[in-house]
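Lab meeting prep.
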Amino acid sequence: MAEIKIEKKKPIWPWILLGLIILAVILYFVIADNDDDDDFNEEENTEQVATPMETEEDTETASWEEDNLSGEESVSKYLTHISDQEKMGIDHEYSSQALVYLINALENRSEEANIDTEVEIQELKNDVRDIKEDPQALTHANTINDVGAKIVDLMEKMQEEKFPDISQDVQEVRTALQNIEPSTPTLDQKDAVNSFYKEAGDVVQNMKMS
C-alpha cells in the first residue's frame, strides 16, 4: 500500500505579525507627520495673532479731561475758572485750562440740545491737547485766535440750529476774539483775552433748552 505523504501547512501567523508590524510603523510615521504639521500651524497662527493696538482715537479720549457733568454744571465750572483772572499773570495754564472747560461746556450743551457737533468738538480737543502738551504755545496769542475762531464757528452753528435768540451774544464773542492781536504776547493783552473768555461764558450760559 502506497504511503500518502501529508504536507504540513506552514503557519501563517508570522506573516500576520509581520504585516501588523509594518502597518504599525506606517501609522507611526503618518501620525508623527500630522503632529509636526499641527505644531507648525499652531506656531504660525500664534505668530499671526496681533495684540490689539491702542488706536489714536482711544489715546485721544484717554488723555482728555472729560468732566461727566451736566451742561449747567460744566458751564459753572468754566465760569468759576475764568473768574480768577489773576491766574493769567502767573502762567499759561490758566488759558489752556479755560479752553478745556469751555469745550466741555459746549459739548455738554450740544448733547442736551441734540446737536451733532462730534466732528467740531473732536477737532477742538485735538488742538487744545497739543496746547496742554506745550503750554508755551500760548506765549503768542495766535494760538488762542486759531482755536477761538473754531469755537466761535461752533457756537454759531449751535445758535443757528437751536438758539435763535442769542445771535448777538455769539457776535460779541467773535468781536472779542478779533480784538486779540495774534502777534502780541498773551500776557501783554490779558484784558482782551479775558474779554473773549467772558463773552464765551455768556453764550454757554444762555444755551439753555427751554
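Slide two material, second protein:
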Amino acid sequence: MKANLILTKEYKKWLAELKQKVRNTQLKAAVKVNSEMLLFYWDLGADIVAKQAKAKWGEGFLTQLSKDLMEEFPGMKGFSKRNLELIRQWYLFYSENRLISQQPVGPIAKQAVSQLPSGTIKRQPVGQIALIPWGHNIAIISKCKNTGEALFYVRNTLEHNWSRNVLVHQIESGLYKREGKSLTNFAITLPKPQSDLAQQTLKNPYI
C-alpha cells in the first residue's frame, strides 16, 4: 500500500506543494530574524552615535563594548569592533536622509515583513532596507555615494533576488547612472527559494 501511495499523482502533487510550503516558511522566518537583527543594529547605531557625542566617549569605547558583548554572547559574530564600526557607519549613512530618519523604523520594518505573504510590502525605504542581509547592506553603503543611489540598489536586490556578488558587480558597473531615474513601482515579495538572495538570507552568519 505504501508503494502504491508514493506512485499516485495526487500524493506526488501534495508532497511537492508541502515541500514548497516548508521552504517558504523557512525563508519567511529567516527574513523576519534578519529584519529584527537590523532593527537592533539601527537602534544600536543610534545609541553609539549619541553616546559618543554626549558622553564624549572616544574610539576606545567601541573596543570595550565589543569585548563586553562578545564575552556575554560568544556565539554571535555581530559584536566585533569592526562590525560595531560598520553599524555606526550604516546608521549615519541613512539617518542623514530626513525621509528615513523621521520614519518610525521599528513599526515600518515589522509591517514590511508581515505583509510579505500577501505578495507586496509598502514602499517605505526603511522597510526595504530591513529585508536584505547585512552583508548586502554593507556592500551598498560602502560603494554608494548617497541614499538615493543606495535605495536604488536595495530595491533592485529585492526585485531581482541578487546575490551580494551580483549586487557589487551592478554597483561597480554603474547601473544606477544608466537606469536610476527610470525605476518605477514594483512588487516586493519573498526571495525565490532557489535564488542566491534566499540562500544568503538563510545562511546569514550574523543571525
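Talking points for slide two:
Residues 115-123 have pLDDT under 50 and may be disordered.
The two ends are 44 Å apart (CA to CA).
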